[in-house]
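Hi support team,

I'm opening this ticket because the web form for multi-chain structure prediction keeps timing out on my end. I have pasted the exact lines I submitted so you can reproduce it. The total is 1065 residues across two entries, so I didn't expect it to be a heavy job. Is there a limit I'm missing, or should I split the entries? Thanks in advance, R.K.
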Amino acid sequence: MNENSKAKENSVLQASQVFKSIEHAGSNLDILYDISMDISAGSTVSMTGPSGSGKTTLLGILAGLDLPSSGSITLLGQAISTMDEDERAKLRNGRVGFVFQSFHLLPNLTALENISLALEVISGSQNIKEQSVQSLESVGLSNRASHLPSQLSGGEQQRVALARSMVVNPAILFADEPTGNLDYQTSMQIVDLMFSLVEQRGSTLILATHDHQLAGRCDVEYRIEAGHLV
Amino acid sequence: MWSIGLKLGTWFSQIDMGFARSLRLSEFRLLLLACLFVVIALSVVGALGSRIEQAMQLRTSAIMGADAILSSSRPLSQIYWEVAEDLGLKTADSISFMSMLTNDQESRLVNVRAVSENYPLRGEILIKSDTSPEGFVEYKSSPDQGTVWAATQAVVDLGLNELEKLQIGDMQADFIGEIMLDPEGGADRIRFAPRVIINISDLESTGLLTPASRARYRLLVAGDREAIEVFYESVSPELESYEEIVVADIQRDEVNSTVGRIISYIRLAVLLSVILSIVAMALAAQGLWRRQIVEMALLRCLGQQNKKTMLRLGFRYLTMGIPVCMLGALIGFAIQDVVGRIVQQQVIMRLPEPSFWSLAGAGIITLIALFVVTLPTLRAVQQVPSVILLRTSSSPPMTQQQSSFSILILIVALTIFLAGDIMLALTVLPGLLLAALLFWGVTRLLIYVVGRIVGIRSLPYFVALKEVCSNGARSAWIVSTFGSIVFALVLLAVFRYDIFESWGQTLPDDSPNVFAINIKQSNLEPLGEFINGQNVTRSDIYSIIRTRIVEINGRPISEYNFTGEAKDRVSHVFNLTETADLPQDNEVVQGQWFQGNASGLSVEDETASELGLELGDTLTLDTAGIRHTAPILNLREVVWENMRPNFFIIATPGLLEDAPVSHMLAVHVDDDINRFINQMSREFPNISAINVSILLQRFQEIVNQGSMAISTLFVFTLLAAGLVFFGILQGQKITRQLQIALLKSMGASRSFIRKAVISEFALLGIFSGLLGSAMALLTGTLMADQIFDMELTVSWSWMAISIAVGIVLVSIAGYLSIRGLLGVVPVRLLANNRG
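Hello R.K., no limit was hit. The queue was backed up. Here is the completed structure from your submission:
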């Protein structure tokens, strides 16, 4: 096995000549131009850039939440550009985690139930409650298990979101501005926690941020400006 | 097998958890409540309405003694009995013929009716009783063998006493009761001889019925409405020219058009209640759409396929819907039972038992409605990328379009299904749709105009005006919804008022309560003198000529291919009158009333349309073998329910000269009616008098029952409107929380916010009241003409009341929507919207 094929075997995500444009007010608005990248397993990767540069769009495309206008994406060894929404969801099932800037916890579920939800959608999951409790403990919120999102602070909500994404032991964790809605102190706590959990589980972390300090903690940093990888 | 069971168990437990979790959402709870109300509305309003309709149908049948009567001048074929029995219908028979009734002193020509044991199948025979508090006893059977019941006139003429021996043909029988009302008697427009009722098994012993006898043979049938319809459809094509079938139908019987209106009204109330409940469901579901879409997008991020999410949510709604529908049906049943009892006690009306299927149907319709208002939104976003769904702050436009379309289809389907009257559906539905579109368009225009021309300096009112004008789409939505409520309520209120008002108008105090027939020309003068000596408010004399149409425009009737009512009209002898004066409650709608020496005919407009007659057409009438041909000079509209003698055709005086003529008297007697009839019978033995006051009383009862039922249904429509109201408040919650948090953070006081919100809603209330009532009056006028066959009293006061009610209710709604939020700190309000 040569170095190239080894690298490919070790790769969890590859993007090749990805373009993205959307229709806006009757004309096409280009968002991403010719993006190519290769991310290896267990690495931590950041995508930085100013607001509106296209990093969140790129993150969504890499995770299979959106499709590129052209180009190809290979996620966990499978080409997702030709898959439909359901096939992409099946690929993510139990192998991909997400942390969003605005948390996206379901408001009618308690902290523990929000975490359990990630296990419930995986067929054949067992010991859902135990695993969820452990995950909640790992983010230090075992005393807030029965609280609804509206009863938690922003930092606590993001910790629950982190616990939800990590409870399935994902191969890749995507994080979109995970500290964008938090104060500095809380941001630091969340970041420490996220890196520590990713390291413990050997997951790959791909995050979009405009925070250079956060980006600096990653193994690889991609900078995006006006849709171009620079 | 074991693993499949385990998987199913896990799935069910997840579903169960999902259900419990969903209950924490106020939107979900509102949806449940709306669902519950739809079931209750459908099962109570729908089923009770249908039970009341059935009961009223039964009362109409009671006037005839059956649901349908097949009659013939010859013995009826046994096949008709077999058809009826195959359909599970109850049957009874009666045979009537003219004969002399004799006691030991005198004889009297009577109409003998021999009836079977179970006669009448509907209604009852009222026999005079001095011991009963009502003055009569009800019978639902024939008199015993060897006994006779006789009508008042025969009793008076012969001076009959109880148990007196009477002779009918060869039979001797005991007189045991005086008939006050008998089913078929009530429906007869003219009766030449007083009725005598005997048991059919005595018929042979009278020796009167021979093949040459002029008798009328009747088969009475009663049973399920559908079976009656099938019976009618199967038998009608087989009828010989001397046979006819009449079905008791509240909608078809012109005498009962007021009852028909009540039924149409009940259907309208049911329809509007259900539509309002569905709107409430849609409003509740609208709040849930955003939550559902976020949940779907999130589950997709976590790796769940769309179809599983759809199944998961679908099953959640099913597991939620079934118990709610069962509970709703149970509550519906209980309410139906209580209201049914009240209706029965108050108006002495026997309601049929509530049907299990009507309750099950209500549940099934609600479940379908639940799926229609919730799931199409998810179908619409199946291929929309999750990132877009998670970023959008409100439901994507395509979900709203998809859902609006599905809800529209649902409402259209339900309207057609529930209306049971295509005209009602075709008028209400476009009315509602047009109303919604007009509300939307006109509100946007009003908002634009108000925003341009109204200059307000006071800050709270300025904020209110800005809120209305800058959120044109939201304001138009609120006005459309509130306007639709006003529309529904005004429509019901206007008709409720007018239906009973019109009944009151058609039955003035001087309505005839005695009809006298068989009056000879020679009786006219002495009869006039007799009436002058009585305490009588009003009396009218009509000439009666028995005739039939034999040619139209010179072509024999047999060459025309008439069917249905038109066929009935031309194949039977009918009563015609000659008069130079337009009768009361008749209105000429085409041509002119008889002028000067004109010679011709006046035809009732519906009869003319059935027979395809127009002004100038000629009719040839055969009166006892004498033919007269005359042109149609005018067409008349007749108010049939005025309880006065009405005629399909009126001739100019002297047109049918040489034709045998008798006269009819319609009189309103102020004193004791029976004394008047007895006295008249003694002085004019050849005249037959009918006391119609009992019939009128019975008819008034039906109207009272309708009034009572309508009041009950109106309450349910109001409740449905209340639920929609609540749905709007709920839909406003998130927006209001953000608005109040923002105003508070800028230092606005509680009273400032209160004033601003109430003013905003008051303005929307004015628009809602104005548009809702205007649209209701327009639709109402159209419906009055097309469905209710009446003139609507359009009063502008309805509009003023609606605007006032609109201001008050919408302002209260606005205040209620913010009351709980006024004391909450802004941070808390914002926290409630996170997540």
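A quick check on our side: Residues 693-745 of chain B form the longest helix (53 residues). Let us know if the file doesn't open in your viewer.
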